[in-house]
Amino acid sequence: MRALYVGTLTPGSTSRMRAEKLRSLTPDVEWKWIDTDSIIINSSRLWQSAAYRFQRGKAVRSLNAEVITQLGSQVFDLTWVDKAIFLFPPTVQRLRQASLNLIHYTPDTAFHAGRSRYFEKTLALYDLLVTTKSFDVREYLRLAGRDTVHLTTQGFDASVHSARNGQAARRKEAVFVGLAEPDRERCISVLLSRGIPVRLAGFGWDAVVRRYRSDSNLMFEGKAAFADDYASLLSQAWIGLGLLSKRFPEQHTTRTFEIPACGAVLATEKNDDTTRFFSPDEALFFDDFENLADRITELFSPGHEQELASIAERGRQRVIEDGRNYMTILAAVLADPRIEPVL
């Protein structure tokens, strides 16, 4: 059997992790990979901006031309397209013609941030539409005109996200790795105002770092912390902040499972998803940031070390037992009865 993966193949990206796991799950399948990211990131800043902001321009045209060229006259039993926001309708039509099974996967919302008019015009061509966003399902069904939606959860990479240090090596600090947003900035400000050490990494935190440059409780690790570096940060801290985006109605994120997988206590707001995934003794739930600061202050005070360790270990066991790792999640997608068997 032959299969094609079309998506971002940058090392450390979750898309690359999925490509590797799919290949591991199908040892008898010959995989071809087409990278949709290298052309964009190697373009000039102008064309990168045009691509990311408008899905237009020279980089996007070159990406589609490259996919068509690499596809050639080949045919595949399975084609997996990861985040098709830049693929023109004729490109997806060509993939459809060349594929017995055509699957689209995205861990992101398809109809809020990062919305793509190209994807919306082509999603009916796919045999399976895999999403982690329950609030997107209705729109998927409307545009597809049939039930081709496979709702799953975000996940973690068991080969990367693991508890790397003993409990004695963990620091009493809260870690957040991700993009700065106003709500997340408020969270960090509240924690710092209460004297809680916070370690940050990610894009957009320049103003926060400047504002608290004299506060020794804020530690900034830079704009990039992926894969091993990311897992290492979580493995050195007792608390991992699973802050959700407020740009759309996000219910959980990859951090929701990566943090406990790395042996840290997941601090997350209460909602339908998070309370379904964890019990109160497996995660640190909060209603607002003052409440979060109260709970962290209590857990970091002398005499609560065993409680911290117990919550962390129960959370870690929960994500392992529930199969929130990519191998289990992707195996379930490949076993969906709406596609031809590939395992």
Tell me what you see in this structure.
This protein is α/β, with parallel strands linked by helices. It has 2 domains: 2-155 and 325-334, Rossmann fold, CATH 3.40.50.2000; 167-321, Rossmann fold (3-Layer(aba) Sandwich). Helices cover 41% and strands 18% of the residues. The chain is built from 15 helices and 12 strands. The strands form 2 sheets. Strands 2-1-3-4-5-6 form a 6-stranded parallel β-sheet, sandwiched between helices. Strands 9-8-7-10-11-12 form a 6-stranded parallel β-sheet, sandwiched between helices. Helix 11 links the parallel strand 10 (237-241) and strand 11 (265-269). The chain is globular and about 65 Å long. The mean pLDDT is 95.
Write the layout of secondary structure elements.
Blueprint: E1 2-7, H1 14-25, E2 30-35, H2 38-41, H3 45-54, H4 58-71, E3 76-82, H5 89-97, E4 99-106, H6 117-122, E5 128-131, H7 137-144, E6 149-151, E7 171-177, H8 182-193, E8 198-201, H9 206-211, E9 218-220, H10 227-235, E10 237-241, H11 255-261, E11 265-269, H12 272-277, E12 284-286, H13 289-300, H14 305-321, H15 326-334
Parallel strand pairs: 1-2, 1-3, 3-4, 4-5, 5-6, 7-8, 7-10, 8-9, 10-11, 11-12
Helix pairs in contact: 1-15, 8-13, 11-14
